[in-house]
C-alpha cells in the first residue's frame, strides 16, 4: 500500500526550535521518514525538531515517507521563520552622580520592536526605549537589553 503523508508546523522565530508534527500513515506495515528542512539539513526522525539559524522567510520543508515495500509519498510545505531582533545599544560613560545615557539602536528586519527590557546590573530595570540611569554607588555594572519584535521574537 501507498503511504499518505502530511505534517504540520507553526511559524517560529529565527534561532528557536521548530517542532514538526507528523500525520503520515499507511494501512499496514511500517514507514521510514526523510525530512529536508530547506537549509541543507535533514532528519530521519518521525517527528523531528530543527533550529533555523541565520535564516528567515518562507522556507520549504519536504517530508518523504517510504513503506517497507518501497512505496513512497512526498509533501512539501513552507514554514515561516521570522527574523530575530538585532539587539544593540550605545551608552555614555559618566561620573558618579551623573546620568548614564543609553541609546537603543536595535532593529528588526521586516518588523518592529514591540518591547524593550533593560537590566542595569544593580537590580533595577526599565522598559523605556532609551533610558537614563543614575547609579547609587561607584562601580562597574553589566547592562543588558532584551528586545521583543512584533512577531514575538526575543533576543
Topology order in helix (H) and strand (E) letters: EEEEEEEEEEEEEEE
How much of the sequence is in beta strands?
A: 35-45%
Poorly predicted ranges:
none
The helix content, as a percent range, equals: under 10%
Shape: rod-shaped
Query: What is the tally of helical segments?
Result: 0
Major beta sheet summary: 5 strands, mixed
What's the average pLDDT?
A: 95
Between the first and last Cα atoms, what is the distance in angstroms? 47 Å
Number of strands: 15
* Radius of gyration, CA atoms, in whole angstroms: 23 Å
Strand order of the largest sheet: 2-9-8-5-6
Structural class: mainly beta
Which short descriptors sum up this protein?
155 residues, rod-shaped, mainly beta
Explain what the structure shows.
This protein has strands at residues 7-8, 12-13, 17-19, 21-22, 31-36, 42-43, 49-51, 57-67, 72-82, 89-91, 100-104, 113-119, 125-126, 132-133, 144-149. By secondary structure, it is an all-beta fold. It has a five-stranded mixed β-sheet, with no helix packed on it. Strands 10-11-14 form a three-stranded antiparallel β-sheet, with no helix packed on it. A hairpin with an 8-residue loop joins strand 10 and strand 11 (100-104). The chain is rod-shaped.
Summarize this structure briefly.
By secondary structure, this protein is mostly beta strands. It has strands at 7-8, 12-13, 17-19, 21-22, 31-36, 42-43, 49-51, 57-67, 72-82, 89-91, 100-104, 113-119, 125-126, 132-133, 144-149.
Amino acid at each position: 500500500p501507498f503511504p499518505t503523508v502530511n505534517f504540520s508546523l507553526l511559524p517560529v522565530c529565527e534561532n528557536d526550535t521548530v517542532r514538526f508534527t507528523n500525520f503520515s500513515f499507511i494501512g499496514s506495515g511500517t514507514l521510514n521518514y526523510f525530512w529536508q528542512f530547506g537549509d541543507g539539513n535533514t532528519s530521519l526522525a518521525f517527528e523531528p525538531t530543527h533550529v533555523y539559524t541565520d535564516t528567515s522567510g518562507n522556507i520549504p520543508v519536504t517530508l518523504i515517507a517510504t513503506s517497507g515495500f518501497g512505496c513512497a509519498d512526498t509533501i512539501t510545505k513552507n514554514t515561516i521563520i521570522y527574523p530575530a531582533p538585532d539587539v544593540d545599544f550605545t551608552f555614555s560613560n559618566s561620573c558618579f552622580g551623573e546620568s548614564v545615557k543609553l541609546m537603543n539602536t536595535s532593529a528588526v528586519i521586516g518588523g518592529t520592536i514591540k518591547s524593550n527590557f533593560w537590566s542595569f546590573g544593580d537590580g533595577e530595570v526599565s522598559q523605556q526605549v532609551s533610558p537614563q540611569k543614575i547609579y547609587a554607588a561607584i562601580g562597574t555594572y553589566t547592562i543588558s537589553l532584551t528586545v521583543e519584535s512584533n512577531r514575538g521574537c526575543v533576543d
